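Hey,
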Amino acid sequence: MKSQVNFLKSVVGLRTLLVLLLWSGFTATAFQMRIWEDVNGLQIKGKFVREIFGSVEIRRPNGELHSIVLEELSPEDLAYVRTLIPPEVVVSVRAKESAKERNEEFIWANDKVTIITAEVEVRKKSRTPYQGTLKAEVYLIGKEMVTGVYKLVGKGTSRVHFTEDNKGRYEFSTAAEYRIYEEYNEIEIRGAAYEGYLVVVVDPQGETLVTETNLSWLEEEHIDTLRRFYVGIFFDERCEKRSAPRPKYYDVRVQF
């Protein structure tokens, strides 16, 4: 028993380590150690951290942060920084509906199963090159037929790269399955119908660059709460969790 517990702990530890490594790889993209120089010829070694309040923060090999005003950077370094600062982007989404291929063994005759595919385009507005990696998150929302509460039906993420090949336009898609079915008591129709989408694009530090949604009731202050939900969660318009809808009581009377 003890060996099984230790094994489970090791598995959980490995999963946690893998998540941290993947995230660190995402945030460190394009931030390489290099020699920086200001207009006075002073040089320091370090890697770009961020631009804040008109200055660039550089992390030196010993871990210390060094700040340089943008106007005091050499022309070469200033041009380099401009390729690292997250660009202004716009998002467009097209939701496509298609019917799932019916399999009589798993899909009843009265059930309606629909696949919603969100085709997302993230476009860089400026022509300035950007060497970093952004992250796009897609959330597909449904609305429960009986109670009217909302449900996170599907979600997906994608790393956004702007290259010469895609000419500043990055495209990807995320799909989710929506199922409407007749309850066993034949009294009510259950399931969640497609309601809308939410797309969030963040920079390597996790700061939100842009959000795009067709949900008129979703307020900006509640978006971060929705982003923390896992698929299958029910919630209301304020993104407060709600219990899963339950079927109405059905009294079965057997006649002999």
